Amino acid sequence: MIHLRALTDEDVALIQHWPPYPQGFEELDYALREQGWLAEYGNHPDMHCNIASEDGEPIGFAILAKTADKEARFRVALRGDKIGRGYGEAVTRAILDKGFYTLNLERIRLIVRKTNPRAQRLYQKVGFVKRGECIKEIRGKPVEFVEMTIERMHYRRAMEN
Q1: What is the pLDDT of residues 103-142, one digit of tens each?
Q2: What is d(CA 74, CA 89) in angstroms, rounded to the nearest whole number?
């Protein structure tokens, strides 16, 4: 079972030293590093950043950064040696539960690289719907993304099935 708790400064230092992502996922590794997602969202007001662990072992982290009343942007990153073991879905479901049932959000948005169909399938499996595409600059290079959204009522329905 996945357990979420608030991220600490000690966790941030630990995350920055996690093993690198395996072959095929190298382009995502920046999210864990010094100028990655934790730095990007660190000063964001109303940010909820959680370390995810299983049996006391940190396996990843998830971010919900409010973008409007009842709405947040979602990010999830796993430790490199935990990719491909089903943890992405477990952590995603845990943070969606927190967002919808604890934080009382109505909508959660994310972007996922177009070159990451595996993650896109995972997000669709838990109820996210593709809403569009965009290009963002990542480390000085343009990257194509798919924009996805999930509404609380759709998440409830997806959980019932």
Answers
A1: 999 999 999 999 999 999 999 999 999 999 999 988 889 9
A2: 13
